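Researcher: I'd like a structural prediction for the single chain below. Treat it as a standalone chain; there are no partners to consider.
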Amino acid sequence: MPETMYSIKMRASRAGAHISGAERIVPARFVGQVSENLHARALGHPKGIPDSIVVTTTALVADDIIYLPELTVTELPCATPSQARKLVTDLLAEITPHSDTIWNYLETVTGMRGAMLVDAETGHRVEPDMHRGVRASTMDHRSSLNLDARAQPGNKNYVHEARVLAAKVASCPHVVAEICISDDPDYTTGYACVQGRYHRIPHMKAAGTNQGTRVIVIDRSDEHALTEISEYLENQAVIVG
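Model: Treating it as a single chain, here is the predicted structure.
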């Protein structure tokens, strides 16, 4: 009988404000150690010590898990946030006339648990909850199925986790692009994934700022798009790699 798989999700906050989150999908034998690692990660976050750490563990149905390939990564040379803006807006111009509006969202909105959803045709935000956003969740990398959980560090592997997240979002129906800037003050590299092409871009923001967010650009021509996007991103279990 196959070993049961579990989704483990961590959310850390202080005074109700989101500080950090992380998640894994692992076999049953790794649940204890991975839960401990996620607690350690929450306590060591550069944005400060949380007053609440919630770790939720849920069994998954094996046949419901989707396995996706990793996205090919293109590294784009970039030395300043102004250069990053030009790179990102040029990429977005392929799929929307509102690339400058989308960059403005990246510079002015922060502190959300999830991502903004922006209509490619209008440039308007359309996520049902403007404060929370839509959170891509229930995902991990295939390596989590094989490695001893004791070898998994509690600290964040930005590149690894960004590529898992981007692969899931890119596979979502009606999604045409995603742009991400981390809200961690010491991490300034972000990415733009446009029509399934992942571009890693350094210096997307100035060091030392908590500003950071994610924008998912969508095609709303289907009347059911918002419901299908939210359901897939938040609930569909995905393993990448």
